[in-house]
Design goal:
Layout lengths: L2 H11 L3 E2 L2 H4 L16 E3 L4 H14 L3 E4 L16 E4 L6 E5 L4 E4 L5 H8 L4 E2 L12 H7 L6 H4 L2 H4 E7 L5 E5 L10 H5 L8 E8 L1 E2 L3 E9 L2 H13 L6 E6 H11 L8 E9 L1 H17 L4 E4 L3 H12 L1 H4 L6 E4 L2 E2 L5 H15 L3 E6 L4 E8 L6 H18 L18 H4 L2 H14 L28 H4 L7
Parallel strand pairs: 2-4, 3-4
Antiparallel strand pairs: 1-2, 5-6, 6-10, 7-11, 8-9, 8-10, 12-14, 12-15, 13-14, 13-18, 16-19, 17-19, 18-19
Helix pairs in contact: 1-3, 9-11, 9-14, 14-15
Bound molecules: flavin-adenine dinucleotide (FAD).
Amino acid sequence: MQSRILDEFRSVVSQGLITGESQLHTYECDALTNFRVMPQAVLLPTSTEQVQAVIRICSREKIPFVARGSGTGLSGGALPDGRGIVISLARMNRILEVDLPNARVVVEPGVINSEVTQRVAAHGYFYAPDPSSQSVCSIGGNVAENSGGAHCLKYGFTTTHVLGLDVVLPDGSLVHIGGKASDHPGYDLPGIFVGSEGTLGIATRITLRIVKKPEVIQTLLAAFNSTNEAGAAVSEIIAAGMLPAAIEMMDNLAIQAAEASVHAGYPDCGALLLVELDGPSAEVVYLMDHVIKICKQCGAWEVRVAQSEAERMVVWKGRKAAFAAMGRISPNYIVQDGVIPRTALPQVLTEIERMSAAEGLRVANVFHAGDGNLHPLVLYDRRIAGQEDRAFELSINILRLCVKFGGSITGEHGVGEEKKMMMSEMFAEPDLDTMQLVRCAFDPEQLSNPGKVFPRPRLCAEKTGPYEPHPLEQAGVAQFF
Ligand SMILES: Cc1cc2nc3c(=O)[nH]c(=O)nc-3n(C[C@H](O)[C@H](O)[C@H](O)COP(=O)(O)OP(=O)(O)OC[C@H]3O[C@@H](n4cnc5c(N)ncnc54)[C@H](O)[C@@H]3O)c2cc1C
């Protein structure tokens, strides 16, 4: 990058400019470490005005940029463009306003998810979206990925809890979308921005909805011989008209890993179900009794309800640590993220088992069973030639299976770099064209996180409509994914 441009960046962010090679390595990937690209520079602005000034320079010089929160993304979303810069929001980490009477909190994007709950807990409130990474991931990253978590079954994903945003558009201008009110006339622009994976600009101020803590929370742990039995219990619980705060499932491999890592005291079983109920005391006690009966009818041979808050935390610790714990049982692993209709759980899990055996690679399953959001973890050893490619192929074939059963290629981790070639397996060309029109309305120069989400690059001047194959493609020489 030309030194005059670096000088200009330095004049905006002063010490917040990183160009040293060893430091840049920190920013070459997110938590999906299979993809790595070194950025030209990393900038750490401390205010919206600085973000605007940096992006104006990018816009003038046609420099691609990517926002970065904590870098815990699992789809390569914060992967830089080799010609461009990373704009880290880590130093914009202040909680700006706590408005308890209206149950709103206004934050800068670098605020860590769990800090929001920590700030309001003493007043009887919490911030509901709870990704397992909540102790380290940022609200800005959550917004971009529309992150979920165990309690999103009842409370809804990030999009339900983001009411307003200040966004620096890719030309450096600032827009205020949504606000503190629950609804706004016109297009639902916060709804469009949430989940846009950094492709529409950078959020610099976010208004969140917080919710009142329930009177009582009870967490049950039930041990089954198989995921099929546990899956049947999930269907029965939902069919009985209950909406638990969370229903999570772990298979035996996932249990082994979690136990080796955090010793949560899980029984050694084929499948473990965690069911959490919250609400008024009388309702929770009554419904928990019903859940216990259903679990036993479906084959649970051990059922435990946590007897204290400390015990409940230990139960959750095992589940929340499950991804990272895979390192205890495998040198490498790929975390996948697909969605299926809840009723298809038994068939899909049986098929994943078959595919895993056929490929000779172990697959552990941890998932938000209540909303059909699977997290198959494909275990492999990078040191064995070819195994990484086979693991990646298997993980992608599992996503194809999800699509075949009427599901989706991502439930909460986003498309990013990793799954962009899967978009055309899920969407028809007109659908992708419509998404591109939205993208181009915000970012006609395609500078904000270019090359992500969409299966193939397309210029905004390119006409929409049915896809016309390139002559090389027609000749069978090249292929679009
Ligand atoms: C162990 C582990 C467990 C996880 N569990 C869950 C889970 O339960 N549920 C879940 O949903 N995810 C989970 N994740 C994935 C990840 O934590 C989430 O996607 C999280 O929201 C990413 O936040 P981040 O701050 O790390 O964002 P980053 O990884 O830094 O960035 C993610 C995306 O957000 C964009 N972005 C960041 N900040 C902004 C901004 N201010 N404006 C615009 N775009 C921005 C980036 O460009 C990128 O595209 C897990 C990850 C790990 C490692």
